[in-house]
Amino acid sequence: MKSGLIDKPMFRRSRAVLLTARALSGADREQARADVTEAVKLSPGLVPAAALAGRLLAEAGEVRKAGRLIEAAWRANPHPDLAETYAHVRRGDSARDRLARVQALAKLKPDDPEGMLAVARAAVDAREFAVARAALAPLAGEASQRVAQMMAEIEEQDTGDVGRSRQWMSRALHAARDPAWTADGLVSDKWLPVSPATGRLDAFQWKVPLADLNPPAA
Fold first, then answer.
1. Given a cut of 80, is residue 211 above it in pLDDT?
2. CA Rg, the chain, in Å?
3. Using CB atoms within 10 A as the burial measure, which of 32, 36, 58, 160 is most buried?
């Protein structure tokens, strides 16, 4: 930045990515907490930093701070990792307590599909199947793979209807894929600070893999 090769926003984002990478790879929990806390200040919408910071702060007993940090990140960039961290920010809570917390988080972005999916996931875990169905209802018409798989799980656990569960699993096989961590044509089940293909920093984005946007002809 001092030499003029990058501007200040790119500097802040790049430094946040590097701090998050160091926190993820380090064994020193106190140093990791300091790193991701700084990373979140530099780039509040960087999901991996916010999720890790939330976990480490909650682990240290700073539950309120962890909650506020995740809420701010959720407003900027709703993501399932944030919802998962927020649900478990307080140890010892019941499944229904976690559901109530996730419902409060989802209200910050009421029309976002990630909020609906997060509520449904927490509701299934709490065995509140009516709540789960209601959360997924706006998404069920054109169900993605995650929606179809969760509907299959609900049918199996709620009604025991194996036939309907299998129908949803069949839909999942042909449904549109959900967003994933994607970089340079590669899809990863977790965020990485650099692309394995090119070594490019901050290459991974949370989006639907490009292959699904232009499916090959039959």
1. no
2. 19
3. 36
Question: What count of other Cβ atoms lies within 10 Å of the Cβ of residue 200?
Answer: 12
Query: CB under 8 Å to 106, separation ≥6 — which residues?
Result: 83, 112, 115, 116, 118, 119
This prediction's pTM: 0.90
pLDDT at 214: 44
pLDDT for the residue 212: 44
Picking from 107, 61, 64, 65, the residue whose alpha carbon sits closest to that of residue 83 is 107
Evaluate if residue 23 carries a pLDDT over 60: yes
